[in-house]
């Protein structure tokens, strides 16, 4: 399993070479995706958006909406468009980031993106995770999860949501939970407080908690920080027998 954030600035063309703060996050995200690619040829990307949707592996996307013409695909050949569906101009950001990471680390991987609505209830998020786990277990293929989710947007005065003095403590608790694979802590995150602090990734993390229920997991932290006043965590979880 790979855990990465979704800032568009992971894409170097969006920084214009002038946002060195993004370098460490980008390097860590690429490493996490590469680790996943070495163990799994089929990925499910979990993310959060305005509405629930499934993005098929044949889909292509483009970062044009964020200012650069960078096309990405969710499976081999999808970036070329040959024999695949049309470009989806409204591909959710989490799917775009998963596709960008796939294109640069694991070109043979096939990715299906499952986007949870922002208001998905905790029990529904966990249930989806368990359903995905059962599907992966029953398939006989090597599946992996890549969770694309962001933390608080209120960590500094210049952050997108300005500063909230509750945010550093909440973000630290989230980072600790992700860094130790504490699924109980993830399942118990206070949705209302997280909403007030701009924490967008909670439904995806709670689906992850459902997916690993009962598994022994070895976590590894690759990055935790807030270079733009937004909480970003990058790491891997490896299930062990």
Describe the overall structure.
With 241 residues, the protein is an alpha/beta fold. The protein has one domain (2-240): LigB-like (Protocatechuate 4,5-dioxygenase, Chain B), CATH 3.40.830. The chain is built from 8 helices and 9 strands. Helix 2 (21-39) crosses helix 3 (93-105). The longest helix has 19 residues, at 21-39. It is globular, with a radius of gyration of 17 Å. The two termini are 15 Å apart. The mean pLDDT is 93.
What keywords describe this structure?
9 strands, 241 residues, Protocatechuate 4,5-dioxygenase, Chain B, 8 helices, 7-stranded mixed beta sheet, alpha/beta
List the helices and strands and how they pair.
Elements: E1 2-4, H1 12-15, H2 21-39, E2 42-49, E3 53-55, E4 60-62, E5 71-73, H3 93-105, E6 110-117, H4 122-139, E7 143-148, H5 167-180, H6 183-187, H7 191-196, H8 202-211, E8 216-225, E9 232-240
Parallel strand pairs: 1-7, 2-6, 2-7
Antiparallel strand pairs: 1-9, 3-6, 4-5, 8-9
Q: Report how far the terminal alpha carbons are from each other.
A: 15 Å
Rounded to an integer, what's the Rg over CA atoms?
A: 17 Å
Strand order of the largest sheet: 3-6-2-7-1-9-8
Mean pLDDT comes to 93
**Name of the CATH homologous superfamily:** LigB-like
Q: Structural class of the secondary structure composition? A: alpha/beta
Label the CATH architecture: 3-Layer(aba) Sandwich
What is the number of helical segments per DSSP (H or I, 4+ residues)?
8
Short description:
The chain is of the alpha/beta class and 241 residues long. It has helices spanning 12-15, 21-39, 93-105, 122-139, 167-180, 183-187, 191-196, 202-211, and strands spanning 2-4, 42-49, 53-55, 60-62, 71-73, 110-117, 143-148, 216-225, 232-240.
């Amino acid at each position: 399993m790979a855990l990465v954030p979704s800032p568009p600035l992971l894409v170097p063309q969006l920084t214009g070479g002038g946002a060195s703060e993004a370098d460490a996050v980008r390097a860590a995200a690429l490493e996490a995706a590469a680790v996943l690619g070495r163990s799994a040829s089929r990925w499910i990307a979990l993310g959060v958006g305005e509405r629930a949707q499934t993005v098929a592996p044949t889909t292509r996307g483009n970062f044009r909406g964020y200012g650069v013409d960078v096309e990405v695909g969710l499976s081999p050949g999808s970036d070329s468009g040959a024999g695949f569906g049309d470009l989806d101009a409204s591909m959710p950001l989490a799917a775009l980031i998963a596709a960008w990471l796939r294109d640069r680390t694991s070109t043979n991987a096939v990715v299906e993106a499952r986007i949870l609505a922002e208001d998905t209830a905790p029990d529904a998020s966990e249930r989806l995770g368990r359903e995905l786990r059962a599907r992966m277990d029953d398939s006989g293929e090597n599946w992996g999860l890549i969770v694309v989710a962001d933390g608080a947007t209120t960590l500094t005065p210049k952050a997108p949501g300005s500063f909230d003095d509750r945010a550093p403590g909440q973000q630290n608790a989230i980072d600790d939970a992700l860094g130790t694979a504490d699924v109980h802590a993830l399942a118990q995150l206070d949705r209302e407080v997280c909403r007030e602090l701009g924490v967008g990734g909670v439904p995806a993390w709670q689906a992850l908690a459902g997916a690993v229920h009962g598994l022994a997991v070895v976590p590894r932290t690759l990055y935790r920080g807030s270079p733009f006043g937004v909480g970003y965590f990058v790491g891997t979880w490896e299930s062990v027998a």
